[in-house]
Amino acid sequence: MLTILGFVMIATFLVLIMLKKMSPIAALVLIPALFCVLVGKGAHLGDYVVEGVSDLAPTAAMLMFAIIYFGVMIDVGLFDPVVRGILRFCKADPMRIVVGTAVLAAIVSLDGDGSTTFMITVSAMYPLYKRLKMSLVVMTGVAAMANGVMNTLPWGGPTARAATALKVDAGDIFVPMIPALAVGLLFVLLLAYVLGVRERRRLGVLTLDQALAEDKQAETETALVGAGTGKGAADARGSGTGRGSAPAGGPGTGAPAPQDDTEPGDGLYGIDPDRPTLRPKLYWFNALLTAVLLTAMIMEWLPIPVLFLLGAALALTVNFPHMPDQKARIAAHAENVLNVSGMVFAAAVFTGVLQGTGMVDHMAAWLVGNIPDGMGPHMALVTGVLSIPLTYFMSNDGFYFGILPVLAEAGQAHGVSTLEIARASIVGQPLHMSSPLVPAVYVLVGMAKVEFGDHTRFVVKWAALTCLVVLGAAVLFGIV
């Protein structure tokens, strides 16, 4: 019964958010609360929620201060050289912009933190997508998939968890998987190219001068109409001719049409090159501080939440020594902090109920128990296939510490090495990065002003296909 209710709860959650019948926060809280009562454990709901919140509190703290830290680094111009290089390649061609999104997300993912990747990628690319009226779910989908492939780095989390759970070396898992992961990344770039070509056909290609000229002309026409009557101004803004028009989604993308809030001066250069928060004289200090912070994170000198707390405090103090400026920077990023932390604590209810009621254990046992005996010699392939849905519907900790050891034991009984099982277990990460249980995805959709349901509807099929490509390459190369 718990197995059935667990699958029904997850399906109910996904359907409601994809159909926009509930907001993600409400669905993450109310649906598990309802199912907790249905399984007869409503009296323990408080304990499950408190336990879930306790488990995710360090993650929420890390994200809060990581958003502030990297928000400040974006404000002061640390990433501007990388962004300018990508944007020079992109120009005003939708195809190049989508491919540039994948390249930028993959490069920034080298730090191993999804929230950082999404903050930098969206900050750089969002103005381009809005100004050219491109589909925003294409941006979030491509960024999530590129980050998902790169999330398999030994310091990214999943590989380290697999190594710890199975007591093997992380390098022995990751290094042999490099060819398969490279194929996966190439597939993401190819997919970005195809999606970009589709956007190009829908929108056409402009030069930078043409795009800016059209935008200025539309603003002038709107202003002239508005000078006549207030109603005329409103009509002009709603007609789709001015910059306030919402972007149309690409064919079959399910893109939302949020209101255009692009600020004057954004141009087609991503991050405003003349913003008053730039600190060019402190560039090398900020670069060194970021390098030290990332090194400390990889070497585990201190807990990650503590590192970002110290880094955010130091970055604010050095770059904005005056209190009003510090308050302004914190206020500028407060919306993202509140949205993400709210989602994390709401997700704590979902995970707390799943684990506390035992639903996740029963679901996993059912899946493992239904593996045919004839598949025993192919347990590495089975593990790879199972990692795709399991890492989407449950946390990485739950999968790698709860399910993977069982799969590895079953594989050893049929002569399949533990390393092969470990390597196969990381192929589901391109889809995992868009899981509703991953806090970083809320940074992505929040900053891009995309509904989580729209992002899910668009990305799931492409991300699952990317996982299968990685798995197929691993089998073809004899890695698993």
TrEMBL record:
UniProt-listed InterPro entries: Cit_transptr-like_dom (IPR004680), Citrate_transporter (IPR014738)
Membrane-topology annotation of the record: Multi-pass membrane protein
Record-level Gene Ontology MF annotations: citrate transmembrane transporter activity
UniProt keyword list: Membrane, Transmembrane, Transmembrane helix, Transport
Subcellular compartments: Membrane
Transmembrane segments: 7-40, 60-79, 134-153, 173-195, 282-299, 305-324, 336-355, 375-394, 459-479
Record bears the keyword Cell division: no
Residues covered by region (Disordered): 223-271
Pfam family, one: CitMHS
Biased segments, Gly residues type: 239-253
Chief place where the protein resides: membrane
Highest rank taxon of the organism: Bacteria
All residue ranges annotated as the Citrate transporter-like domain in the record: 15-428
GO cellular component, one term: membrane
NCBIfam families per UniProt: citMHS
Protein name as catalogued: Citrate transporter
